[in-house]
Sequence to fold (511 residues):
Amino acid sequence: MKESLKIFSGDLKNSFRDLLPIIIVVALFQGVIIRTVPDNLISIVIGLTIVAVGLALFIRGLELGIFPIGEGLAVDFAKKGSLFWLLAFAFTIGFSTTVAEPALIAIADKAAVISDGRVDAFFLRMTVAFSVGFAIALGTYRILVGHPIQYYIISGYIIVVVITFFAPREIIGLAYDSGGVTTSTVTVPLVAALGIGLASSIKGRNPAIDGFGLIAFASLMPMIFVQAYGILVYSTSATATKAVEVATKVVEKGKAVAYHFDWMNIFWELINTILDVIPILTVIFFFQYLVIRKSVAHLHKIIVGIILVILGLYAFIVGLEMGLFPIGETIAYQLTNMDNYLLIYLFAFLIGFSTTMAEPALLAIAIKAEEISEGNIKQNILRMVVAFGVAIGIALGSYRIVAGDPIHYYIIVGYIFVIMFTYFAPKYIIPIAYDSGGVTTSTVTVPLVAALGLGLAENLEWCDPLIDGFGLIAFASLFPMLTVMGYGIHAERYKKKKLKAEQSTNEGEAS
Fold:
């Protein structure tokens, strides 16, 4: 018990450290630039404290429950030797966890409104869920056959770019954003554990090179499928007056900063969190007991871990609603009403960096990356590099909205750079870089980024909130791939330079 409390206190300390950048950014803009004290300051402080506790519980739950059962399933499937059941499991995990994803439900509802009902929210969700299931199954197949991931991802980006020129422009931003909201906080660690466990159990596979990349597939495929779906059902003559009302309501949320404490709301938050996790648990235990037909090792630890994940995620969400979302959305709303666009770009950069550092999904991937690389990739450095990429992406995306430029020109150029960087980056960093793009737009980042994008588009006369307000999530997904591969290229060159210097020194001493 004493050892458990010691471990948890360490996790809690790290959680508060992760939240520190957000606190500094919010305090700076609220106190120095906007120069007002929030009415609900006590609620904000309590909320951020709850976020830290939730993050600590979540990470401990991953270590006890999600990581072991995901890797255990991968090993058992590899031993079973059934390609059909392994791909069926991969597809089912992707489909079941995506179809109930709250962020996807919100995106689908917005798409239905934008198309004036021509895009059906239910069928769009089914399309995205199918694409994620297909993506994880395809990524699993890649691990089995040992193909380099870049061939698949680059081919996928080429398809995305080509299909963009045929898709209705009203759907492009949403299609790009859908690639960033399909990987939930719980799905990411499980899928990562599945890939790493599978690569570790197959002879000739490298967990660092082959084990990562499933998240990248899950982020890429929805962009293709949603645009294809939009081409099939969207009419260019459609009007979308209802969508203006929806966009306005989203932006108006920035004005309401008070969190109302309600026991019923708290209870339903817990129920919703449990409902989000149930599809994952159903799939896991179905395949574990009915397909593999083997009991779960250390079941009591797994159950404790799953409970901690649920409680941690629940506390995390409640704390965000009390502390970060109201103040963040308020600042975003107030800044969009100012004429100083440089302040908006600065806020976009800083909030992108600080919120990404607190993303649970990124933390889970970084922990695994450090573990698999045997310490060669430091989790804190990786997270900072990813956060820097998100910061650049959101700042540039904000500039794109202000400039009124079409989103696909930026994204296409970005993909060209991704392809170029892939050629020069060391092999071990490429799958991690691709995955980094899918884990940066999750629980913390998405609501604030959406509020900023819609707020900007709503307040600029030359912008259409339906076309220009969406797409910031796509920028936040793209640029981390560039910064992580850039970090890998730099690290590799530094290592070679150091090795060369040591060899010169040794040769000098020998002579």
In short: DSSP finds 21 helices and no strands in the chain.
